[in-house]
């Protein structure tokens, strides 16, 4: 049987919500039916590259140079590899990808929005770029996908209401549930965590939009109030050293732990009492869904889509201009018992966040 050849176009395959989603798909999709190639806009080695090759996926790296040369190279790559489908995850840049895919005569061209960029102010250059790229995306994409309705409208405009499809970011609920208590106890020993401490966690790239500076301000207030806590920043990014320096400048190194990228994220999720996400913008953040699946109480910025709340009563959306509300909610959640994660399983499947549901939806689109 001839395999369906899919090009997944990404900025890079380093740790991030969309990248983790794609890895969950690659790990679970039928590799007898589908051949997946990741086209990355970077030259350096990425976090997931080794696992992609190990799982039978392929990788092509292409540099952004002169726009005309870049498009010409894209068309050549699409034709040379005989792709049946091009699936782009690069927001506005998808306009160029879809144009090149059309010129390469690829019939199925999917643009996938993972962010709602409309919650922040943009300069005139960005606004002009968005108008141009949006026209290309709407004209040359055959399928409009988004992780949430808000993310869809942000990229596709009102046309998403009629033509768009919502595809949730899938989570591997069994990996979250199968974390042993023994491993959680090891983490507590490693970080010298006491039974009285509130364990606060954040999972996400260390970049400006994730707003780690806000979390540092939260930590400063908690310390000033003599609250016994530990806070974890899980992830890496181009702001890592800046945030690390800020932690040391504020003498918070005994309170905030930066782990970098790690492979046992699910163990940490099971360790947390509270999950914080004060982002300036998001689409539908995978980490927040995974935190809920682990039964962790979540406090999210109100810039994040309300669709992130899967409806089990453990999510609170708060404004970033009132840090006192965040502190108050942290203290409430710190004393609140976590929901048993096994009770949550049915809700995850019902809302179609489980990997099996997403694979089934994707296979319909890919066929």
Question: What do these coordinates show?
Answer:
- Strand 5, helix 5 and strand 6 form a beta-alpha-beta unit.
- The strands form two sheets. A seven-stranded parallel β-sheet has the order 3-2-1-4-5-6-7, sandwiched between helices. Strands 10-9-8-11-12-13 form a six-stranded parallel β-sheet, with helices on both faces.
- The protein has two domains: 178 residues, Glycogen Phosphorylase B (Rossmann fold); 178 residues, 3-Layer(aba) Sandwich (Rossmann fold).
- The chain is globular.
- It is built from 16 helices and 13 strands.
- The chain is 43% helix and 18% strand.
- With 367 residues, it is an alpha/beta fold.
In short:
Helix content is about 45%, strand content about 20%. With about 375 residues, it is α/β, with parallel strands linked by helices. It folds into 2 domains: about 5-170 and about 355-365, Glycogen Phosphorylase B (Rossmann fold), CATH 3.40.50.2000; about 175-350, Glycogen Phosphorylase B (Rossmann fold), CATH 3.40.50.
Strand content: 15-25%
Largest beta-sheet details: 7 strands, parallel
Q: What letter string, H or E per element, gives the SSE order? A: EHEHEHEHEHEHHEHHEHEHEHEHEEHHH
End-to-end gap: 14 Å
Unreliable stretches? none
| Separate helix tally | 16
Q: Count structural domains.
A: 2
> Which structural category do the helix and sheet elements fall into?
alpha/beta
CATH class of the largest domain: Alpha Beta
**Gyration radius, to the nearest Å?**
21 Å
What general form does the structure show? globular
Average pLDDT, rounded to a whole number, is 94
What would you call the quaternary organization?
single chain
CATH architecture identity of the largest domain: 3-Layer(aba) Sandwich
Portion in helices: 40-55%
Q: Which fold name corresponds to the CATH topology of the largest domain?
A: Rossmann fold
- Tell me the number of strands: 13
Strands side by side in the biggest sheet: 3-2-1-4-5-6-7
CATH H level of the largest domain: which superfamily? Glycogen Phosphorylase B
């Amino acid at each position: 049987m001839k395999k369906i050849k899919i090009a997944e176009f990404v900025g890079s395959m380093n740790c991030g919500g969309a990248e983790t989603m794609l890895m969950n798909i690659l790990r679970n999709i039928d590799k007898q039916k589908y051949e997946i190639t990741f086209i990355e806009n970077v030259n350096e080695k990425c976090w997931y590259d080794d696992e992609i090759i190990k799982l039978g996926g392929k990788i092509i790296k292409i540099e952004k140079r002169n726009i005309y040369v870049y498009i010409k190279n894209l068309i050549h790559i699409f034709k040379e590899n005989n792709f049946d489908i091009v699936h782009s995850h690069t927001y506005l840049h998808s306009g160029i990808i879809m144009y090149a895919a059309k010129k390469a005569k690829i019939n199925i061209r999917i643009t996938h929005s993972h962010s709602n960029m409309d919650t922040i102010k943009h300069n005139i250059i960005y606004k002009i770029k968005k108008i141009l790229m949006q026209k290309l995306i709407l004209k040359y994409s055959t399928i409009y996908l988004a992780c949430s309705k808000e993310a869809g409208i942000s990229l596709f405009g009102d046309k998403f209401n009629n033509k768009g499809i919502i595809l949730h970011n899938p989570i591997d609920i069994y990996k979250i549930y199968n974390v042993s208590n023994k491993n959680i106890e090891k983490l507590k020993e490693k970080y010298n965590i006491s039974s009285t401490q509130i364990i606060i966690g954040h999972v996400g790239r260390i970049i400006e939009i994730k707003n780690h500076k806000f979390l540092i301000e939260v930590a400063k207030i908690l310390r000033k109030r003599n609250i016994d806590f530990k806070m974890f920043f899980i992830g890496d990014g181009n702001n890592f050293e800046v945030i690390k320096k800020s932690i040391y400048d504020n003498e918070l190194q005994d309170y905030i732990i930066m782990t970098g990228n790690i492979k046992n994220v699910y163990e940490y999720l099971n360790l947390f009492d509270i999950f914080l996400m004060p982002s300036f913008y998001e689409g539908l953040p995978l980490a927040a869904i995974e935190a809920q699946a682990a039964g962790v109480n979540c406090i999210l910025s109100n810039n994040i889509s309300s669709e992130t709340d899967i409806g089990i009563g453990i999510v609170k959306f708060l404004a970033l201009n009132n840090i006192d509300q965040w502190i108050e909610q942290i203290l409430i959640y710190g004393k609140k018992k976590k929901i048993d994660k096994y009770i949550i399983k049915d809700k995850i499947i019902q809302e179609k966040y489980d990997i099996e549901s997403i694979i089934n939806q994707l296979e319909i689109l890919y066929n």
